[in-house]
Amino acid sequence: MRPFDGSTPIGFIGAGAVGGSLSLALHAAGYPVVSVASRTRASSQTFASRIPGCVPYKSLQKLVDSARFVFVTTSDDAIGPVCQSLRWREGQGVAHCSGAASLEPLQSAVDQGAAAAAFHPLQAFSSVEEGARNISGATFGIEAGPALRGYLERMAQDIGGSPIFLRPEDKALYHVSGVLMGNLLAALASVAASLWPKFDHTRDEGIRALIPMMGAAARNLDANGVPQGVAGPYPRGDIGTIRKHLEALRSSAPEYLPLYCELALAGLPFAVEKGALSEELSREIGDIVKSYRESGES
Ligand SMILES: NC(=O)c1ccc[n+]([C@@H]2O[C@H](COP(=O)([O-])OP(=O)(O)OC[C@H]3O[C@@H](n4cnc5c(N)ncnc54)[C@H](OP(=O)(O)O)[C@@H]3O)[C@@H](O)[C@H]2O)c1
Predict the structure, then answer these.
(1) Alpha-carbon distance 261 to 254, whole Å?
(2) Residue-wise pLDDT tens digits, 93-137
(3) C-alpha 72 to ligand 1 mean position (Å)
(4) What are the domain boundaries of the chain?
(5) Whose CA is nearest to atom 39 of ligand 1?
(6) Which DSSP string do the residues of 235-263 spell out, in sequence order?
(7) What is the CATH number of domain 10-166?
């Protein structure tokens, strides 16, 4: 089979946040993004308007016929049905960008002679403009056979990313780590900001005040790793402060007490590993936190 390389024509099915961001990054790196098709004409026209020479197709089949390598950047649930509805040809390549899905949704293309892969940017995308900026520096989780392995490894590097290869059986856990960081961290930030109206400030003020802390926490971990980058009253062993937190939550926001307790307990081993907290003090703090967690359950 002719190898895939930087001159292979690329098409996109699905003109959303990831398709739009990835296509811009590929175009900037010199990869030919030649075509796009999406569920709605408006989405594919907007996508194509950002990339000179990119043709928006109404028909998904014409898109597949126009490109040698196709990214299916639809929602996860649509990948299989879309792939199955199309005719693929020998020597073509197709990839989805889902972190959790296996290559199974692309099987019908493989049955027709195409090579299939997963190319997952470990990053949070909510808009094309932000996404195109954030893609550089992202890790890409790749599942691919020999025909696409080198091509996608090089592609990730060319757009400023770091490729890693994943076994199918490890993908769910890999995706959990990404969702904990990209999505559940946003949920945690939303919870933290939701405490602000309880002391007469708005949630918007809260999130604006807390975001610089998210940035600093990320920079500390980036500079020092785990566990040296962890900080706060738990590694310090500040029992008095910890009791104040637990009391305040119990009286003002008991709905968040279990979440706080679980996170605090999950963090204690890292404080001990850092050498900041003795085993004994960690056990003492753990018992206090557990007693509040259990009182919240009753
Ligand atoms: N968002 C993230 O943070 C993120 C991160 C990493 C990986 N991913 C993965 O990237 C993929 C795309 O996610 P996304 O966030 O970019 O989703 P998205 O913004 O909702 O975009 C999905 C696009 O797919 C199109 N589409 C949906 N069903 C279709 C169908 N049956 N036929 C043709 N086009 C269809 C939609 O079309 P219209 O606009 O035309 O309606 C939309 O443009 C998913 O596999 C997701 O798991 C997402």
Answers:
(1) 11
(2) 999 999 989 999 999 999 999 999 999 999 989 889 889 889 999
(3) 8
(4) 10-166, 174-297
(5) 43
(6) HHT-HHHHHHHHHHHHHH-GGGHHHHHHH
(7) 3.40.50.720
